[in-house]
Amino acid sequence: MNFVTSTNINAAVEKIISSIDEVREQWRVPGLAIAVSCRGEDHFYNSGLADVCAKKPFTAETVIPIASVTKPFVAHAVSVLVQKGVLTWDAPVTQYVKDLQFADTEIQEKASLADFLSMRTGLDGYQEWQGIDCNTSDQLKTFISKILPTGSFRESYIYSGLSIAFAAMVIQEVSGRSWTEILEDDVFRPNGIKDYAFSWKQAVEELITAKGYSAVESGWAEMPLTPHEQHLVRADGTLCLSARELLKWLKLLSSHPELQRMITPHVLTHFPDVPLDFWPESYGLCWGRRNYRGHAMAYHRGSEKGFRTVIAILPESDISIAILSNGDRNLLIHLLLNHFLDALLNHNYIPWEPIFEAYRKQIAHGA
After folding, report:
1. Contact yes or no for 305/291 (Cβ under 8 A)
2. Scanning 148, 212, 285, 308, which has the fewest C-beta atoms within 10 Å of its C-beta?
3. Rounded Cα–Cα distance for residues 7 and 14 (Å)
4. Which one-letter DSSP state was computed for residue 345?
């Protein structure tokens, strides 16, 4: 385990660092990297391996697919156009893309980018949409014109990558630039974010990447993405970044003029009140919201085959955290997020491990 910082840190964080290798092995995760910005100071931690066979360490520079954590980047791309006066969050999308047709009249007349990015249109269609080329506007328009809502407009929360693909299409139609071009030109390059890729194929060819694993009885089994999955560029989840670069972006976003609008709750999620702080209580514009022990927290998590990521921003406390791992379906990233937040916020210690272990057993039995 490696730790890099400019100053000493408090004893609670030191305790986490001293046991991180042991905890990682207990939770059967090959490797992970943690990047923390707390009140202006950056801290980087890593533990374990990015490549088990090659014994390559997992570091702050190791790039993985961040999966659904891509979604807040799409909201950021929209915010660029909002700042430039090209788009607004709340105008009906049919005002910008004239040939749009929805099967539902209320969506046709009222649905805005804020509605799509906060997953409150009532539209799902996720399974059917998987076979659609979401980078082709005509196919996406045809598809979305036929699906009926399964939830109430602006009252229900339905988490679906279709909504993000649709928002990305609106970006392209209105600006003439893709969401990837906007991020590159207006966000990444001007702010020194360098180690990124929009597909796993590009990441493997150009950057220092990890391999994804699933825990098995004999150790870990590699879970390679298929050739098709490696080539995908999708707004709902193919961006690849390292912990170091993710932290750069989180710090940039923390001072972004549109941040409060993006993380403001737009719809309740109605998830069960489990005590693990990774189900959102409400959802903003591609950001889950929770009250973490009295502190407002915006966050998102992503799960790709063999990889898991979680990011969090606590604006009032000036804290940003990114945790990346190459273990499939692991709860360790959420356990560590809670421990770090408790340490950085000077909370009384909570033994989160048995709580997470109980939940792990619960979901393993399909409860």
Report:
1. no
2. 148
3. 12
4. T
Q: Say how far apart CA 60 and CA 46 lie, in whole Å.
A: 7
Which segments of 232-309 does DSSP mark as H helices, in order? Answer: 243-254, 259-263
Residue owning tokens 């979901």:
363
Which residue's entry shows tokens 């750069």?
Answer: 248
Residue type, 237: G
End-to-end CA distance of the chain: 35
Where are the alpha helices (H) located in the chain, listed in sequence order? 11-26, 70-83, 105-110, 113-117, 126-129, 137-144, 161-175, 179-182, 200-206, 227-231, 243-254, 259-263, 332-344, 352-364
Tell me the β-bridge partners of 310.
301, 323
- Model's pTM, two decimal places? 0.94
Q: How far is CA 138 from CA 133, 145, 192, in A?
A: 9, 11, 35
Predicted local distance difference test score (pLDDT) of residue 154: 95
Q: Copy the structure tokens of residue 273.
A: 């009140």
pLDDT digits (tens, 9 = 90+) for 89-141: 999 999 999 999 999 999 999 999 999 999 999 998 766 666 566 567 888 89
Q: Which residues, listed in sequence order, are joined to residue 268 by a DSSP beta bridge?
A: 282
Question: Residue 319 corresponds to which amino acid?
Answer: I
Report residue 348: phi and psi, to 5°: -65, 145
